Amino acid sequence: MSLHLIEGFLEMLMTERGAAANTIDSYRRDMEEFNRFVTKKGSDLTSCSPSDIQDYLKSLDAAGLMNSTQARRLSAIKQFFSYMLGDDFRKDDPSLNIDSPRSQRRLPKYLSEEEVNRLLAVTEGAEPEKLRMASLLQLLYATGLRATELVTLPYPALRDQDRFLIIRGKGNKERLVPVNQSAKAALQNYLEIRQSFLPEEETHSKWLYPSRGESGHLTRQRFGQLLKALAFDANIDPKKVSPHVLRHAFASHLLANGADLRSLQKMLGHSDISTTQIYTHVLQKRLREVVTTHHPLADAK
């Protein structure tokens, strides 16, 4: 019964809220783990109490999980019980008065401009793998796309005269993202050899970055592996490099060079500007430099 309720909850997220596949997978894991916990306590999702949820959170804390992870799992639980209450599977919401663990917002990890340039340098070459990697890296750094958004770009994602990509992101929302000439040039070079990545029996693919794998396109996991190999070749610690770190680099470098938060919010596809405000550490540094350099009393003794 409990697994059936979880499936109904996930179906609601997909159909009514347009939740992305990755989000659905995360919610499924979170709810199945919580279900196992309450089952071991002799309860289930239709009868568990607030104390069961509190005990679950205590177990996460004892296991050393970060507050942000605990908060995310509690969010899934709260949304699940809101669904249960709304569809009359329960007459109460046991999560209603349970507060989320306070999480410390950590500054995003990102690469310096010099490190990004080193990554780009090792993609130079005429081999198909290098041309594809140059295109992926240039597009990611030029647009700040999420890894899934990048590897699932349709073909053709960008025509000769286009200056923007149309991205369908989280919640099935569309946004326009500008593409610079360097990324367009790298993409054009890749398109000339794109056919070599198609499965042998196929002559066409709807994906910009096709693959012989089951999905039909390069996966975000494989892209992450390729980025780490690239970091090794560039003499950068592979642990520092991931698609999300390059997304952070895009955002941080834009702000450092004069972009504003509202424009960045639109390009990143954040529904709430508070999410974008994690990058204000860059703005604060730039503002300090402006005051130090340009204020008439900056050099006063």
TrEMBL record:
Site-specific tyrosine recombinase, which acts by catalyzing the cutting and rejoining of the recombining DNA molecules. The XerC-XerD complex is essential to convert dimers of the bacterial chromosome into monomers to permit their segregation at cell division. It also contributes to the segregational stability of plasmids. Coiled coil: none annotated. Forms a cyclic heterotetrameric complex composed of two molecules of XerC and two molecules of XerD. This is Tyrosine recombinase XerD. PROSITE patterns: CB, TYR_RECOMBINASE. It comes from Sneathiella marina. The active site is at residues 146, 170, 244, 247, 270, 279. The keyword Cytoplasm applies. Residues 106-292 form the Tyr recombinase domain. It comes from the Bacteria. Residues 1-85 form the Core-binding (CB) domain. InterPro entries: CB (IPR044068), DNA_brk_join_enz (IPR011010), Integrase-like_cat_sf (IPR013762), Integrase_catalytic (IPR002104), Integrase_recombinase_N (IPR010998), Integrase_SAM-like_N (IPR004107), Recomb_XerD (IPR011932), Tyrosine_recombinase_XerC/XerD (IPR023009).
